[in-house]
Amino acid sequence: MKIILIKYGELTTKKDNRKVFINILYNNIKKALNNYKVKIIKTRDRMYIETEENIEEVVDILKNIFGIHSIVVATKVNTNIDEIEQNALKIAKEINFSTFKVEITRADKSFPIHSMDFSRKLGALILKNIPNIKVDVHNPEYLMHIEIRKDYSYIYHQEVKASGGYPVGVAGKGLLMLSGGIDSPVAGYLAMKRGIKLECIYFESPPHTSIMAKNKVKKLVEELTKYDSSITLNVVKFTEIQEAIYKNIDPTYMITIMRRMMYRISTKVMENTSCLCLINGESVGQVASQTLTSMSVINNVTNVPVIRPVACLDKLEIIDISRKIGTYETSILPYEDCCTIFLPKHPVINPNLNKAIAYEKSFDYESLIDKAVKEREIIEIKRNNQKFDI
Fold this sequence. Notes:
By secondary structure, this protein is of the alpha/beta class. It has helices at residues 18-32, 55-62, 81-93, 115-129, 183-193, 211-224, 239-248, 254-271, 292-299, 315-325, 328-331, 353-360, 365-374; strands at 2-7, 38-42, 46-51, 70-78, 99-106, 134-135, 142-148, 152-156, 159-161, 173-177, 197-204, 230-237, 275-279, 306-307, 377-382.
């Protein structure tokens, strides 16, 4: 019988709260495989999935679930010597190889043969029954793994690397400040890898920004649902605030004030959700608003934790991750977001906090912020449910 065996990886470092992590991972897997007929068995050391569906499709979904270190498709047999030997030989005969090694893990210490002795015994059996092969313990072409457990044993040879990290949701929820660029989706991905469930916020400025720019962001969220089955997107109309900034603020400080307004709005949105932190794609020194001085002045308007997962990565490293997770091609589509309109030629790179506060007194931003938060559009985006015209 074929079975999918899931290895936990980093979860094995947990002690008293390990059960909590495993339960959240179990629920995430269950949601991800909602459209498949599967039986999921969870234990402290492994998780097992039995299915009559297309196993390759199921494995492709599991690869993107955080908390899973690796996946194998194994043959499940009863834990007795004869059955293990018969199945191991049968499996070896179905594979074309010239060198091999048998590696056994004896989780059930009551099994009567020690791991090394049983490995040699099985190796000899395979050598005797398959011509023109030899053992290579250092660099085998075919490596047969056998896990011996109390009731059942598992025979496999290919291990698929999964996403690792912690199960999404185990660390609580965070609000991702999502633009249409390359950096913020990568920041969201890295936050999810540490167990943070995402909610997203996007600032649009119609008619200065287009519906295509908005759909581009929806598409980016949909790409991120590969790693969590459902993500909420808050779309905030930023037009009135941005126009007020353009009319009243010194051009060199427009980006600084705009970002301070975005932080204020995001903090207010957090009050109506269970989000515990803000997340964004700021990378130190990449643009004027991301110098350490700028970050300090901008961050001054909120007291919530702000996580910057890509802060110390260079642009090429961020691009590499965006290609890997499938967001790059969408991110580079040429639709302007509100951060690129009204862009001054020479934004200040070392803003002064007192100046920023003084400039903000030139217009009633608080009522505009309250209106923007109240009138925001809330969109639930689910994995594979929507396709956006971009």
